Amino acid sequence: MTIPFVPAVYPDFPEYSPAQDTHDGLVCVSDAITPMMLLAAYRKGIFPWFSEHGVFYWFSQNPRAVLLPERLHIGRSLAKTLRHKSYRVSVNTCFADVIAACASVPRPEQGGTWIIPDFQAAYTALHRLGHAHSFECWLPDDAGQWQLAGGFYGVQIGSVFYGESMFARRADASKIAFARAVPFLADCGIRLIDCQQDTAHLARFGSQLLAFETFRERLQEWNDVGLRREIGQGMVASNKAA
Question: Alpha-carbon torsion 72, 126, 44, 165, what sign?
Answer without folding.
Answer: negative
